[in-house]
Hints:
five-stranded mixed β-sheet, General secretion pathway protein B, alpha+beta, GspB_C
Amino acid sequence: MSLLTSASRQSRRVEQAHFFMPERLHGESGSKARWLAWLLGLPLCAALGGATNYGWHLLHNEPVEQRVEVPHPTELPFKLLPQDYEFVTEPLPEADPVQDLVIDQPALPPVADKPVVPDAVDTDLRSSLEKRFMQAVNDTVQANTPAVPVQSTASPDATPLGALPPRISQQVPAMKYGAHVYSSIPANRTININGRDYHEGDEVVSGVVLLRIAPETSIFRVGSQSFSLNALTDWQGY
Length: 238
């Protein structure tokens, strides 16, 4: 409204100035005055018309309000927890003890092609094989060992066990001669009596001491009497 009032007052002032202009304006000076009045009046009229149009629209056009409504509330992808929410934790389950895996091995099938040998035959065969093996070992040792003077097996103080008087031979228990190993190194010499290995100086049976191991015989002592026994020869005793 203030714009309309200002424009109206300005237009009236221009009209009054033009209406009461003295007659001396006529002629050349009057022509310039008219042109000046037109130049000032046209922009003023345009401004007055624009202000009038703006005021009319401002008074008669109410602002349009658009209301947007959501048809349904939007659901959140997560659930809000209350502030006093309490977390309850539980202990982890205990692992089951690992049990040892037991695999039963299948029983091996009996060997059908192995002949059944009686105990007596098996013992004789083993004894024969041991004698052959020991003989081969002795032959190899003698072939690889340089010739050294060997004491005679018929030592003057070593009588064969079978030639001893009965009162002395009865003191010698039964001996099963299982193996005989002779070496140029005394520490490596050994014989097997009744299933056990003995070296020089050992007591082979009760009261019988092994004195020396010769290439083919062994010298023993019972009491104060020494005697000899051929290698791999068993003594049955009394």
